[in-house]
What does this fold into?
Amino acid sequence: ASSVSGSVSLKNVTASRTDISSTSGSVRAENSVSKTISAQSVSGSVKVESSECTDAHISSTSGSVLFSGKADELSLTSTSGSVKAYLDAMLKQDSRFKSMSGSVRLTLPDNDGFTMKYSSMSGSVSNRFTGLRAEKSGTNTYKNGGITLTLESMSGSVSID
It folds into this structure.
């Protein structure tokens, strides 16, 4: 589903692949079950909520990005907006969360461990699981390490809750 100058919304979709995009409007998918979800907007927010997938690639050039639900692997990117993910189950593969000028927040369930690679030029960094409070860039490991979660922001805070 796509639009050039309007919002796009999908609800209760089950498919092997879901592609949803808008050039000038918000994008929303709710209760989607797909192997792959691709959602993007050039000038609008992108929300994929209460969804389940193997991998999702969600991006916005000038808007916030949100994912909630279950995924094995995520790639969430915004140029000028916040990036947020609320996960019902732990990711199974390395994943990336990036914003140029907004905060990056990842909310995880209890899990067996992960490695957080972080970078924030002018914001704070925190990890609830390890108690980390930092600035700039580095690596932080929880329990046995496991998958790598990369969180980056040029001018916003970065956190795992």
Notes: The chain is about 0% helix and 65% strand. The mean pLDDT is 97. The radius of gyration is 15 Å.
